[in-house]
Design a protein that fits this description.
By secondary structure, the chain is an alpha/beta fold. It contains twelve helices and eight strands. It has one domain: Alpha/Beta hydrolase fold, catalytic domain (Rossmann fold, 3-Layer(aba) Sandwich). Helix 5 packs antiparallel against helix 6.
């Protein structure tokens, strides 16, 4: 398919080269800015694969966050990354988009770790955000990890999965949201994905669900996959301790922008009960919870048509409200 704009750009930000991906059928349309998860798990390859039809309504803007994907460079130091720095980067990308496409605000989609980043962006820079759309909403790191571990343990017991039970006994429960090592955390995440808490219908290993789409996408060349992998583990090591300490009940009890949570009913990566409690207590000018019954952590690709139609409605309603205002 031909697009009016189908570009890869590099934005120089405070010593880093941030790689942007833009796709649009009409550059005057509102900008939809995607904040990927992880930290370090860039997702533009499946955003563009599953949601390019949204270019009938918006300009799609993805970027590889500092230290991740094509924005990772060998020799980076972990102290170059912090949650505050990532918020400032997101604000800079949003400002660039407003200037480039003649907008005063952008729509922000945050997925998983990106949902924490999106809330922090909307909290600090509400003047840049038309509306916030969360998915796999992160709220409280310590509780998140405890509930996710409990899900995996219960599933392993129910299935009499002896190897999983041995692995879980060896790594133990997370303490204040932390496992003893990143390898131990990956064991839990792999089992959680295998048991349907990551992708509801596609119960498969974490590696299979992540690596195969990367091998099939034109967004990253084979030679760039090593860079992608190194950046993913670098970002996780550099940011996880800080990320897991965040608690939106405390730091974001209110937002000054409309909030929409597009949540998979079966999500066990960022377990639903925590996000639901935060949403119910949240003060915002408008808020809406939208269920995706056949999804877990990623409705954007598990129920892509429904998710896309939901976003079209959100964009349309908020643009109409802005014009009336």
């Amino acid at each position: 398919m031909e697009y009016a704009i189908d570009e890869k750009k590099v934005l120089a930000l405070d010593g880093a080269s941030i790689h942007l991906r833009v796709r649009s059928n009409d550059p005057t349309r509102p900008v939809l800015l995607f904040l990927h998860g992880g930290p370090g798990v860039c997702d533009r390859h499946w955003v563009l694969k599953d949601q390019s039809a949204l270019t009938d309504t918006v300009t799609i803007l993805c970027y590889d966050q500092r230290g991740a994907g094509l924005s990772y460079r060998k020799g980076m130091q972990e102290q170059e990354l912090s949650v505050d720095r990532m918020v400032e980067d997101a604000a800079a990308v949003a400002k660039w988009a407003c200037e480039r496409f003649g907008q005063d605000k952008v729509f922000v989609v945050g997925h998983s770790w990106g949902s924490l980043l999106g809330v922090l962006l909307a909290k600090k820079y509400p003047e840049l955000v038309r509306a916030y759309i969360g998915m796999g909403q992160f709220v409280n790191g310590e509780e998140n990890e405890a509930l996710s571990y409990d899900f995996v343990l219960a599933q392993a017991q129910r299935r009499a999965d002896k190897k999983a039970l041995r692995d879980l006994a060896r790594i133990g429960e997370p303490v204040r949201g932390r496992y003893k090592s990143m390898d131990d955390m990956m064991i839990q995440r792999n089992l959680m994905t295998k048991y349907g808490g990551g992708t509801y219908k596609g119960k498969e290993s974490l590696m299979r669900s992540m690596i195969l789409p990367l091998l099939r996408t034109p967004e990253y060349s084979l030679t760039q996959l090593k860079q992608y992998s190194e950046g993913a583990f670098f970002s996780l090591r550099a940011l996880w301790d800080e990320v897991v300490d965040h608690d939106l009940f405390r730091i974001a009890p209110s937002l000054a922008v409309p909030v929409y949570l597009t949540e998979g009913r079966h999500d066990q990566n960022t377990p639903i009960p925590i996000a639901r409690r935060w949403f119910e207590s949240l003060e915002a000018p408008h808020k809406e919870w939208i269920w995706f019954e056949e999804s877990a952590h990623s409705p954007i690709k598990e129920e892509p048509e429904k998710w896309g139609e939901t976003v079209r409605r959100i964009v349309r309603e908020n643009c109409e409200n802005a014009q009336e205002g």
